[in-house]
Amino acid sequence: MAVAVVVALVFPLVLPLACVPGPAFLSAGGAPDGLYLQVAAHPDDDLLFMSPDLLGLVARGARTVTVYLTAGESVAGVSDDHPPRRYALDRQKGVRAAYAWVAGARDRWRRSFMTTGRISVEVDTLEDLPGVRLVFVGLPDGGDPRADGGRGALTRLWADPEGRTCVHAFLRRAACLTHRDVLDMMRSLTDVFRPTVLRVLDPDPPSVGVEHPDHVAAARFALTAVPADVEVIAYRGYTIQPLPVNLDPVAREVKRKAFAIYRQHDYRAVSGHRYDAWVERMYRRWPDESIAP
């Protein structure tokens, strides 16, 4: 699948445009060993909250698999007349374009499908660097009131291990899926890709501040699915907004540009001070706290 590369920036940079560094800035040291699995709720969570850690891995040629559990359609088509399916697919285009830029590769991807239990997932592989893969599961976004049972589909699935709650996937025809189906899917992906490191957002966020419940549910599914010998790195999500800026200027601008490339495809992210705040920060979860789901 060929997708046009978009590199125009949509908001001012702190550095002059000519001085914005390319992804090569992040590539010192060569490709690390192992496979790095990221599990995110939405396309953009990885760019906003796991980066520049993640961007550095991609730029160095590491083997990475990023799984997006929801389609990220949110309220497109509810609060406006934007087709929700088109919006979900646009967000996929956005993350593909951003990853290709960071990898220093053409924005050309090979699309395939993998059946994992009762769920068929899309796997996109970067043609020039096949160690970079994106997996789109397509469950309903937590903000979508059209999902079975209304809003909070992923959270309700996580909270019901007995399987009384079931939800249909948003992007593809599938059976009504339960907690066990999602967990089996995650375990199948783990068996196939055999990660050495798992990145997630905060599975147990602090009571101060507001975290997206999809972030929490996605992290808990992932943590439950991976073997005990997989290293886990968890990141703060929405709750980093009031914290001090902690990225140096160059790393900040590389992250800003990667997100700007994605942002060209996301009409709901064209503005908003929250995005700018998240781009300037990255906080790993405090190491002395438990990460048990």
Automatic annotation (TrEMBL):
InterPro entries: GlcNAc_PI_deacetylase-related (IPR003737), LmbE-like_dom_sf (IPR024078). Gene3D superfamilies: LmbE-like. GO terms for biological process: glycoside metabolic process. One of its GO terms (molecular function) is hydrolase activity, acting on carbon-nitrogen (but not peptide) bonds, in linear amides. Keywords: Zinc. PANTHER family: N-ACETYLGLUCOSAMINYL-PHOSPHATIDYLINOSITOL DE-N-ACETYLASE (PTHR12993:SF11), N-ACETYLGLUCOSAMINYL-PHOSPHATIDYLINOSITOL DE-N-ACETYLASE-RELATED (PTHR12993). This is PIG-L family deacetylase.
